[in-house]
Design goal:
The chain is an alpha/beta fold. The protein has two domains: 209 residues, Rossmann fold (3-Layer(aba) Sandwich), CATH 3.40.50; 158 residues, Rossmann fold (3-Layer(aba) Sandwich). The chain has twelve helices and 17 strands. The strands form four sheets. A seven-stranded mixed sheet has the order 13-12-11-14-15-16-17, sandwiched between helices. It has a six-stranded parallel sheet with strand order 2-1-5-8-9-10, with helices on both faces. It has a two-stranded antiparallel sheet with strand order 3-4. Helix 2 links the parallel strand 1 and strand 2. Helix 2 crosses helix 10 and helix 5 packs parallel to helix 12. The chain is globular. It starts with a helix and ends in an 8-residue tail after the last helix. The relative contact order is 0.13.
């Protein structure tokens, strides 16, 4: 864990508790395991002080359920006391595997359903918890972050609504546009990115990568992902390029202008390994088209790194693209639900974020500076150095 000495000298805000919605239960279990390890190994003054009972526990998870009535209406019920706790509520609004029965039919929970359950949990905890923090890796309605014409402004309204309900801090990952935090200027809002976990997963999988400007390049698949690509490329010391989407603005399909073509801007990629970095794979059509064009430009290998692998249209298109050698690896995090079939694919690599998320919670519980976990530049340089020296220790 970074800057362990700072944690050892810090005092926690209140006893820590994690409340996981059913959508985020698997990730919360992994985070809880790391937190237990952290607290048992750290030499904090609160560890032995009777005034800080509960600092070291075997379990930081609080139990709660969100049952549904036959009409589909719901409620939240807390099974454990959270009075006086520094409460972290975790939810995954993109987990479509959770079902409930309504009027005899089986429904899959949508992002709207998960959002309503989150509000129910906050309502049940309000007035009891010392502080309420929401961990929402995939920001609800994050793609509807700005208003163009006569349309709703869903993401900003959701953040304002949760802030008005008493949420002190929002923790999210790779927000489509983090400027939506301006909807709640008096609440904390931290947006984390996973470049360290991406490069770690790639280096663990590929044994012959050469990370320099002569052999590797980072590509942004569109204008929106350019900032991510530039940061990643600068940290790795390599060049960057981008595609821009040429759209047909005379036509609207499913509420948006269809993409006519992807045009490339950047250096020559002939014979280079290419890392495409973006915030999400939705249906995956644009990503596959980008990878295809890169291979046609004689890229050596194409690695797709995205924080959220949603695969809303299934995996068939990716299976076919992999057979055609359009890409070599797909790296996504475990911050959102992954269909079981994905993990069986030969091209898939998971970037585990649970330890990183546990350290974020630990630092926030101690009210310590989040710069300790916001900037992974030194860690990336360290793991690259060990990889280049072919030290197995980087896998720890």
């Amino acid at each position: 864990m970074p800057n362990l000495s700072e944690l050892e000298a810090a005092i926690p805000v209140a006893p820590l508790k994690i409340l996981a919605a059913d959508s985020a239960a698997p990730l919360a279990n992994q985070v809880n395991r790391y937190l237990v390890e952290f607290r048992q190994s750290v030499n904090n003054i609160a560890k032995t002080d009777p005034a800080f009972q509960g600092y070291v526990e075997d379990n930081y998870l609080a139990s709660a359920i969100c049952p549904r009535f036959g009409t589909g209406e719901g409620k939240a019920v807390l099974s454990d006391s959270i009075r006086g706790k520094d409460l972290f509520i975790m939810t995954d609004v993109c987990n479509h595997s959770i079902t409930y029965r309504m009027n005899g039919y089986i429904n899959h929970k949508s992002p709207d359903d998960h959002y309503q359950d989150l509000k129910r949990l906050i309502s049940a905890a309000n007035g009891k918890a010392r502080r309420i923090n929401v961990i929402m890796p995939f920001l609800y309605e994050g793609r509807q972050h700005k208003r163009t014409g006569r349309e709703s402004l869903d993401c900003a309204y959701a953040i304002k609504e949760l802030s008005d309900m008493g949420v002190s801090n929002f923790l999210t990952f790779d927000a489509h546009d983090p400027r939506v935090q301006n909807a709640a200027p008096l609440s904390g809002f931290d947006n984390f990115i996973p470049p360290y976990q991406f490069i770690r997963a790639l280096l663990r999988t590929e044994e012959d990568l050469i990370i320099d400007k002569y052999h590797t390049i980072v590509i942004s698949p569109d204008e929106g992902a350019l900032d991510r690509a530039v940061y990643f490329a600068n940290v790795l010391g390599i060049d960057t390029g981008m595609f821009y989407k040429r759209r047909d603005y005379s036509t609207i399909v499913n509420g948006k202008n269809p993409i006519v073509a992807h045009e490339f801007l950047g250096e020559n990629i002939d014979g280079k390994d290419v890392i495409i970095i973006d915030d999400m794979i939705s249906s995956g059509g644009s990503m596959i088209d980008t990878a295809r064009q890169l291979k046609e430009m004689n890229a050596k290998r194409v690695f797709i790194c995205c924080t959220f692998g949603l695969f809303t249209d299934g995996l068939q298109a990716f299976d076919e693209a992999y057979e055609k050698c359009y890409f070599d690896r797909v790296v996504t995090t475990n911050l959102t639900y992954q269909i079981p079939e994905l993990k069986e694919r030969p091209y898939y690599v998971e970037a585990d974020m649970s330890k990183f998320l546990a350290s974020i919670i630990d630092f926030m519980n101690h009210d310590s500076s989040m710069s300790n976990v916001h900037t992974p530049t030194e860690k990336i340089h360290e793991v690259l150095s060990k990889y280049n020296n072919r030290e197995d220790i980087f896998l720890e």
